[in-house]
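Lab notebook: predicted structure, single chain.

Context: the supervisor wants predicted structures on file for every construct in the current expression panel, including those that have not yet been purified. This is the next one on the list. No modifications to the sequence; it matches the entry in the shared construct table.
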Amino acid sequence: MTTTTTGPIAYVEGLAKHYGSMGHPPYQWTINTDAPWTSLTRPLSQCRVTMLTSGGISLCNMPAFDPMARNDHRLDAIPVTAGSTDFQIHDSYYDHRDADQDINCQFPIDRLRELASSGEIGSLAPRFWSGFMGRIYNRSKVLTESGPAFADELKRDGVDLLIAVPA
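Prediction complete. Output recorded below exactly as produced.
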């Protein structure tokens, strides 16, 4: 059977309908008209890299994320030395069965270590990050508090490149 698409997928409208049926208020999408592009100032092989996931991933020895949370600005620092089997996932908004078996599907910790080891990237920051677990409706808090505080932590770690891994 062949399916023909007559136009673009109405992604935003589909999400609004889906989450509205679950009782969520209409989402106020952020439209950035002045977000500057910042190019790397040196080759990737000389950059310090970290990552952030919003997939409800925490270390097993940390409190689990609330899988139904809204406006959760929690941000966990994860030591770069954490083992790839030391994680738990608590998020009800995506199918994480594969990531439950191999965390690298959603939080590619081992892949980044391999890239650092091979010299593809310069080094890994001392911390990876998990937080900002979806369904954040109070965007102003991200822009004025949580985001700048996170940026300060990235500066403290000397990060050149942040890889964002949304769920």
